[in-house]
Amino acid sequence: MNESKVKHISPITKANRILYLDILRGIAILFIFIANIYAFCGWYLTTNETKMGFPGHQLDTWIKHGTQLFIVGKWYSIFSILFGIGFVIQYKNKKSKSFTSFFSRRMLGLLLIGLIHLIFIWWGDILTLYAILGFTLIFFRNLSNLKLLICAGILLCLPTVHFLIMSLTDPVYPFYFYDIFDSFIISADSLQALDEKGNYSWKVLDRSWLDTESWYEMERVTLIYPLNRIGMILEEGRMFKVLACFLIGIWVGRKILYQNLLDNKPLIKKIALWGFAIGIPMNVLLVYFNDIYPYGSTWYVAAFIPYALGVVPLAAAYMASIAILVKSERGFLHYFAPIGRMALSNYIFQSIIAILIFYGVGFGLAFDLPLWQVILIAIGIFCGQIVFSTFWLMKFKFGPLEWIWRMMTYGKIIPNRN
Fold it and tell me: How many domains are there within the chain?
């Protein structure tokens, strides 16, 4: 595909948006928040004795397994696929010799927003990784559909190979990032980081960090936590997974734009059927392996295989099922569209709201609530975002951060009032 020069590049208008993608993006934002809320509320740091003392602790166990089976990994994969679809749409609407510079500016803007989120707000940011990997999509834009899928398949297998190679080295290279972080924490001595035996413990540190009522103490750790985040991403090979989903998204985007995929109901039904048939058994196996082979054990790598084989098929099944529901004009799905149109703003807002609710600098509810109540809080926040997004978009064309991102991309003031 040769790029032909055009005189002007401008933002995609509301009329050119695809409703299905906005709805899907909105639903993804909900389930990504539910997956993230475990970290915000300190669930992974809560002792088993405390969990057993919560009312409805058996329900919590079912919710935890349900989250691992149906949510974790699947919805950020969908969000990554949507990123690839968005790339195709932008390339189609803005195909020109200036596309490379346009998309590079777009990724630079996203990188800046992501770094602010990562360094100053929440360590679990995904936007920074999206922006860094997003630059590489320019080199994939003219690849054939077959080559895209082959590359995606190879990338999905690489985390397993990468982890096996790392297991043969000592020390494992991501540990360098952990060690730098740990040495800073120990030397700073600003928060409790030692267990009862006087040994450094990241669990003790994280609990102390979530509990602190000092913004200064919280930010001192927040500013260097990206080192841990880098180590985590490298250790699990997330960069391979995300890029694979980007490439799948390019393939899907082409099918939607040029082959009317969303109108091909028989094919969409087949995708849903095969996605569930492959994805559910693989994810059951994934949950099982995560239970019997905890992190750090010899056979921990066993969980990488069902992850590689099961997460994307189940994500594809979700995408196909939602496409069928959208085509059948299920009215309730339209409530998710405003969230999807303001996905960037809502993602960042969720971090800020969750910190204010669960961290010690806010209401300090971390470690104090059963999981089912935490999930209800997450759903309540999301419902509030639906209301906010709906009313915001009645007056404005773009969400607040989307508007800033567009102005950073186009290098000019863009009117935002409807």
Answer: 1
Q: Which burial class, exposed, middle or buried, applies to 183 when counting CB atoms under 10 A from its CB (0-12, 13-18, 19+)?
A: exposed
Residue 211 lies in a domain: no
DSSP 46: S
Q: Provide the domain limits for residue 47.
A: 16-155+237-410
Do 18 and 340 form a contact (C-beta atoms < 8 A)?
no
Helix (H) or strand (E) holding 386: helix 371-395
Residue 396, domain member (yes or no): yes
State the helix-helix crossing angle for 57-70 and 371-395, rounded to 10 degrees.
50
- pTM equals 0.93
For the chain, 418 residues long, give each residue's pLDDT as a single digit of tens.
433 333 344 555 554 579 999 999 999 999 999 999 999 999 999 988 999 999 999 999 999 999 999 999 999 999 999 999 999 999 988 766 689 999 999 999 999 999 999 999 999 999 999 999 999 999 999 999 999 999 999 999 999 999 888 888 877 889 899 888 888 876 665 678 777 777 777 788 888 899 999 998 899 889 999 999 999 999 999 999 999 999 999 999 999 999 999 999 999 999 999 999 999 999 999 998 888 877 666 677 888 889 999 999 999 999 999 999 999 887 899 999 999 999 999 999 999 999 999 999 999 999 999 999 999 999 999 999 999 999 999 999 999 999 999 999 999 999 999 9
Q: Where are the alpha helices (DSSP H) in 71-126?
A: 74-93, 99-116
Helix/strand/coil for 417:
strand
